[in-house]
Amino acid sequence: NPHAVGSSDSYVDNLETDVLIVGAGFGGIYLMHKLRQLGFKCKIYEAGKELGGIWHWNCYPGARVDTQVPIYEYSIPEVWKDWTWSEKYPGFAELRKYFEHVDKVLNVKKDVAFDTRVVGAQFDKASSKWVVKTEDGRTARARYLLLATGFAAKRYFPDWMGLDKFKGEIHHSSFWPDAGVDVKGKRVAVIGTGSTGVQIAQETAKEAGSVTVFQRTPNLALPMRQTKLTRDEQINRKSDYPEIYKNRMTTFAGFQYDFVDRNTLDDTPSQREAFYEKLFANGGFEFWLANYKDLLFDKEANNEAYKFWAKKTRARISDPRKRDILAPENPPHAFGTKRPSLEQNYYEMLDKPQNDVVDIKKTPIVEVTETGIKTEDGKLREFDVIALATGFDSVTGGMKNMGLKDIDGVELNEKWKMGTWSYLGMTCAGYPNMFFLYGAQGPTAFSNGPSCVECQGDWIVDAMKKLKDEDIKYIDPSKEAEESWRQKVTELSDKTLFPGTSSWYMGANIPGKPREQLNFAGGIPLYEKECREALNNGFEGFITA
Ligand code: N01
Fold first, then answer.
1. Predicted structure pTM score
2. Which residue's CA lies nearest to atom 11 of ligand 1?
3. Does the pLDDT value for residue 3 go beyond 70?
4. Is any atom of ligand 1 closer than 6 Å to the C-beta of 174?
5. ipTM, interface predicted TM-score of the complex
6. Where are the beta strands (DSSP E) in 419-478?
């Protein structure tokens, strides 16, 4: 295997290990690090060729994280103590270097089999072990199966006619060529305006002859306010890091800030304006996650935030047609119920005469031809490069795509056909000793990735320690426990404005996917409390054997 860099025993057929982890991104590496400390023998299977998960797959132009450092990194002291960044919101190349550093410090790769895609797994009752199959025909056996495959493991391609006919270059954002694409002077189309589309459009416009964005829904993007960081200022702050990491677990989304304890209409209009101005000036997600506490609960409150956002954004766009498409007077959806992107010059860039935005809600794409993109009004726009920033079968798609079967042989794909059932957003009935993180019905999309992974990872590790200490062979959640968790996830979400918006949070981006809340909308502290209670109450909700 040309990509094998783990120890040779990671690649053997009939691999036997205590713990098999799938995915070598933030989640998988964290689990392995913590479990090794407890003496568990772990191996990671990773479909890609390197560590880093999403940062291995995502190398599209402009790919960078929307959460500032040091919030967006591990709280592991050996890792942070002499690592520094060059920017507040680092790009993918620097994030990849971070994972090289993580490997140096934690010696990860020796236990990772790269280029290893899991295509089947089932728990064998007789041996109480998971039997896991890989695409190239290997079999592994493990007492525990841990899935750390992230929420964006299955890319989504709309079924437009002719996608395969295009004669120029066409790439999905998560499968961008590592060597990059030469866009100098070229006509570039970007389809999709999620976080990815905004970043690709912004970055390619620096070199392209023209950039045309195909927008179905406006991204209510917020100013990033990127800044360079010096090594000295970071080193001087290192003594604060333990406190920073402790605090991030006390906030709703695992950030360094949280919603303020005031409702929007508690303030006078001028106080509100001043508060919004401050949040906007600070940049990042503050206008979203450090806003009034009713922002995501109350329509009227939300409208106030939208009005402010639209005023600020519309002032940046001189072309009235583009202004109305990118930042309409009336909210296209409640602010923050779809993920706002962090932009640097998105609106000024699209305002330029050579660049354009096409409203594909009004005139949908009907076909990709050899030379370009045809919309319903019959217009054909010609391009040299097309970037498909059309997102993912998010949250559940990855796990449904791995050939997982329950103890009776029923596919997860089948179990989750009409909706998603899990217990605590980490376990599934019929899947003994299988744990997953950063996936369905956990804080996932409503949280900072590393915070979520550490919160869930610590729980999984503690659960496994308890199983070992108490000599319990396996745990399997009951169907009743799953049902009541699903109900909790739904009830929490129903109090918010999320269900009213068609977003991937609600499964609404994939035709035919059940519409339901896929994430735990109660915030990290409540989530952690619920999970800890189940553990401390002697595996409440689980059947033990
Ligand atoms: O995907 P998305 P993404 N016809 O699903 C459009 C994380 N992330 O890759 O909104 C026309 O958000 C779709 O339109 P609509 C982050 O959590 C983080 O951008 O459904 N258009 C939408 O505009 C993020 O939220 C970072 O109406 C179609 C776009 O394609 C998540 O990953 C960077 C269509 C898809 O947007 C996913 O982001 C990047 C169709 N048939 C990603 N189908 C950072 O931290 C879809 N679209 C920086």
1. 0.97
2. 216
3. no
4. no
5. 0.98
6. 434-436, 475-477
